[in-house]
Design brief:
The protein folds into 4 domains: 18-152, 3-Layer(aba) Sandwich (Rossmann fold); 155-195, no CATH class; 198-283; 314-419, Trna Endonuclease, Chain: A, domain 1 (3-Layer(aba) Sandwich). 41% of the residues lie in helices and 19% in strands. The chain has 15 helices and 12 strands. The chain has a 7-stranded mixed sheet, sandwiched between helices. A 5-stranded parallel sheet has the order 2-3-4-1-5, sandwiched between helices. Helix 8 crosses helix 12 (305-311). The chain is globular, with a radius of gyration of 22 Å.
């Protein structure tokens, strides 16, 4: 078992993803069910393995740790809540403290009933993972309202990508910009960074991950019958990463291909894709009116490599991919993320964290004055004191203008604090 991503590779490697490990360990023995959510193969299983190691290190006996991976054939017969309850009950003795680790829990029908019963019947600390946020959130809200804490897990950040490479190669990374180009092309699924892959083989791995997420977390979970039509919606979304979006545009696109789809079906498919964490919907925010708008949101991907696996690596995608990377980084850091609107101008991202904000413009390169004006002017119109960034891949740097900082995206992603 690979300790990086949970896949069945030879030669275990323990690489701590401190962002998630620290969050999870903070809640050990606290009276909440701990819920790790994330797209398939983003590393949730590995984090549970790290948790088990930590528990053993703290003196917990292994027989007091009940760990089940529901994607393993070994547990394939535990497919409903009653079976899960009986399986766990048979391994619990008296009033001892037990630690129950349940991986890919959505594979068990009515699992939430069993988890709810564990919190009542046993002296247990419970940790679960799942690859479908919609199912987990709706069922947890029903049975465990106020008694669970969710920890979203994302694919590797650029900082983690560097960490993985340094630990795998036992060599320090000296050229972060060159490494960013590699990260840009490979994406962040941990399995791709356990050894060397060609681009072709890497995208094949990602396509298999995508296919699994589509089939198991979208088609099966939402009883989608017209898979070919779903794939057309996916293609439209992927081809428009970072562009303003409307369900009507999707319907018109599909109509141009001599297929029909109604707007409700478009919304249902998008909701299913969001639930599987294949895509993220980022709403628009009126900076001056300080309100969330309900139209022309944008969609981004759970990892940029999904785009390459589906449609090939093309330079025309680069601006949207850079935006995608910044969006994911903001989410990793706990920000609520919006697309900003200021009068007729657009700000790529407004990030909110508690009482603070950050404004970010993202571009590939600012090669002429019109591009510089387009990126800086919306930020210059915002008169508050919150940090403002223009993030690009430029080799030349523009002076900070009225406090707006220009950063290479590699440097931006590696910043310890944005605020």
């Amino acid at each position: 078992m690979c300790y990086i991503c949970g896949c069945n590779l030879k030669g275990p490697q323990m690489i701590r993803r401190e962002l998630y490990v620290s969050q999870l360990f903070e809640f050990i023995d606290k009276p909440f069910v701990k819920v790790l959510t994330g797209i398939r193969r983003c590393g949730k299983s590995a984090i549970l393995l790290l948790l088990k190691e930590e528990l053993v290190r703290k003196g917990i006996r292994e027989e007091n740790i009940i760990q089940i991976n529901f994607e393993s054939f070994e547990y394939s017969d535990i497919d409903q809540s009653t079976k899960l309850y009986e399986f766990v009950k048979a391994r619990i003795s008296g009033k001892q403290r037990y630690y129950i680790l349940l991986d890919e829990i959505q594979e068990v029908k009515s699992w939430e009933k069993a988890v709810d019963a564990f919190t009542v019947d046993f002296n247990a600390d419970i940790f679960i993972t799942g690859s479908n946020s919609r199912l987990l959130s709706s069922e947890l809200a029903t049975y465990l309202a106020g008694r669970y804490v969710e920890i979203p897990v994302y694919t590797l950040s650029f900082a983690e990508f560097i960490q993985f490479k340094q630990e795998r190669t036992h060599a320090l990374i000296s050229d972060r910009y060159n490494e960013f180009n590699n990260f840009l092309q490979l994406g962040g699924f941990p399995v791709l960074h356990t050894s060397d892959y060609t681009m072709e083989s890497a995208y094949k791995v990602v396509f298999d991950i995508y296919s699994s997420a589509i089939l198991r977390d979208t088609v099966q979970r939402y009883n989608i019958r017209d898979v070919e039509l779903l794939e057309r919606v996916v293609k439209f979304v992927f081809d428009n990463v970072g562009n303003k979006f409307s369900a009507k545009n999707v319907a018109d696109f599909i109509k141009s291909q001599y297929r029909k789809i109604d707007l409700n079906t478009v919304y249902n498919y998008l909701d299913a894709l969001e639930g599987a964490l294949i895509i993220y919907k980022i709403p628009r925010y009126d900076v001056k009116g300080r309100e969330i708008l309900k139209t022309l949101e944008k969609y981004y991907l759970g990892d940029p490599s999904l785009l390459y696996a589906m449609m090939g690596y093309r330079t025309r995608f680069i601006s949207g991919v850079l935006e995608n990377m910044v969006m994911l980084e903001l989410k990793r850091r706990g920000y609520r993320v919006f697309v900003g609107k200021s009068d007729e101008k657009e700000i790529d991202f407004v990030g909110e964290l508690k009482n603070d904000k950050v404004y970010i413009q993202v571009a590939y390169k600012m090669t002429d004055q019109s591009t510089i004006d387009r990126e800086y002017n919306p930020l210059l119109e915002i008169k508050d004191h919150y940090p403002k960034f223009v993030v690009t891949m430029d080799d030349d740097w523009h002076d900070n203008i009225q406090g707006i900082r220009h950063k290479h995206i590699a440097d931006f992603l590696l910043m310890n604090e944005l605020i």
